[in-house]
Write a structure and sequence with these properties.
358 residues; alpha/beta; Rossmann fold; two-stranded parallel sheet; 30% helix; globular
């Protein structure tokens, strides 16, 4: 007899975690910051600033759904990077953009940001289906939509000139898990990946196992990496990866952050066995940083030429929230380190291998 799977109540999980965040930052318990958990796309963002206080914020559609694009006001005519940002459950593209402040970073550093948005018809809570095998493969389901959104922006040459060698993907929570899915399914497209409070690709196969993975971690990340690599063998290349996770996260257990790191270490070893031999317990460098808000431990792994290929940032006291995000944001903690700047700094210093020709 097949056991009955109890659906995950994402609102309850996030509300509980929000209470932890408020308790740590001094906000009265029972006073939620930012938009209500049930906020749908297009609803007011309360005290949050516009997703694009400078530059442009435009809605676009493709076959898979709708997405939003931010471009700096004075976009360079030279090739510029593109960053794909994937929101978490109950978030919209606009609330994620406003909460992470990534558009401000884009304005300072000169890159374009695209925010694919999950359809509420596909998932009423706005979650990406990272736990469904049908949405973990190249050119199918949600990965096909996200890749199409990125490629649509890349092809809009009358608006900007995107550097195809500098296309990156990042996300938080369900979006972080889907960011790993995207980079493992399209290593020829993405030159780097950032996973904030997420899970390893393939760590769950349905909603029931998703809940278990969030609480205790998923299966062996090395085995999951090998399976993902086998699906793209011939297109695979090392993909620089930065993983950020709070050690007080009660929604997605911190063990998942370590599993994401180990999965990418394995994937990158398989992609470049003669260039990279990184092991989880043997980082190239380890440092402690408490200069920008909360203290954090930073570990880096370099390839044999000394180029940074992976980084892990474990933030002390951070719950399930975007580190250094906007006050009043959707699942943000305004205390540093500032994840958006940290992610872009990593993408700036890391070096991806040349794209594999199709």
């Amino acid at each position: 007899m097949t056991p009955r799977i109890t659906p995950i109540d994402w609102r309850e999980l996030y509300a509980a975690n929000r209470a932890v965040i408020e308790g740590r930052t001094g906000t009265p318990h029972g006073t939620l910051q930012g938009p209500p958990l049930g906020t749908l796309p297009g609803m007011p963002l309360g005290t949050l600033q516009s997703p694009s206080p400078a530059g442009t914020w435009e809605e676009h559609t493709c076959a898979g759904g709708r997405f939003f694009v931010h471009a700096p006001e004075d976009i360079d005519s030279e090739p510029v990077p593109l960053l794909v940002m994937l929101h978490g459950c109950t978030q919209s593209a606009a609330s994620f953009a406003a909460g992470t402040l990534m558009n401000d970073v884009a304005d300072r550093h000169g890159f374009v940001v695209v925010y694919p948005e999950q359809s509420r018809d596909r998932n009423p809570m706005g979650c990406w289906s990272w736990f469904d095998a049908a949405h973990r493969r190249r050119d199918t389901g949600e990965p096909a939509f996200i890749a199409e959104a990125a490629q649509t922006v890349m092809e809009a040459t009358s608006d900007w000139n995107i550097d195809a060698e500098r296309v990156f993907v990042a996300g938080m929570s369900a979006g972080g898990a889907m960011a790993s899915v995207m980079a493992m399914a399209y290593p020829d497209l993405f030159a780097g990946v950032a996973v904030h409070s997420g899970l390893a690709c393939g760590s769950a196969g349905d909603q029931g196992s998703a809940f278990a993975a969030m609480s205790k971690g998923g299966p062996d990340p090395k085995r999951l990496a090998a399976a993902a690599f086998s699906r793209v063998d011939g297109l695979a290349r090392p993909v620089p990866a930065v993983v950020i996770h709070g050690d007080a996260d009660r929604t997605v257990s911190p063990v998942n952050g370590d599993q994401v790191v180990e999965q990418w270490l394995t994937f990158n070893r398989l992609a470049a066995p003669d260039e990279f031999d990184g092991e989880l317990r043997q980082p190239t460098t380890t440092s402690r940083d408490d200069a920008d808000g909360r203290a954090c431990t930073r570990r880096r792994w370099t390839d044999r030429d000394g180029a940074v290929l992976q980084e892990s940032v474990k933030v002390e006291g951070l719950g399930h929230a975007w580190s250094g995000g906007a006050p009043g944001g959707s699942y943000t903690d305004p205390s540093g380190p500032v994840a958006s700047e940290l992610i872009w700094d990593f993408f700036t210093v890391c070096r991806a291998a040349p794209r594999v020709a199709c």
